[in-house]
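Hi everyone, sorry if this is the wrong subforum. Our group has a chain we'd like a structural model of before ordering constructs, and none of us has done structure prediction before. Sequence below.
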Amino acid sequence: MALFSRKHDDRAWSGVIVAKHRGMLDGSNMYHHLEIRSPDGSTQKERVDGKFWKAVNEGDHVSKTPGEPPTKLPE
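Answer:
Right subforum, don't worry. Here is the predicted structure as tokens:
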């Protein structure tokens, strides 16, 4: 039986980071979000773990494939 982490869900996305957000939305847990601009020009807010959030900056290209954690793409 495999355990499934919400951090590595079945969604896929890619684009450029336009903003980083974090907050204690429920008052006890820190949540990290990246605002991503997709190649088609739309933006979306994606939740990521704190380690990845700290490792990337605005302007970085990132990608996520289904079932895998997000990755920073080379320049």
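For your construct planning: The first helix runs from residue 50 to 55. The first strand starts at residue 13 and ends at 23.
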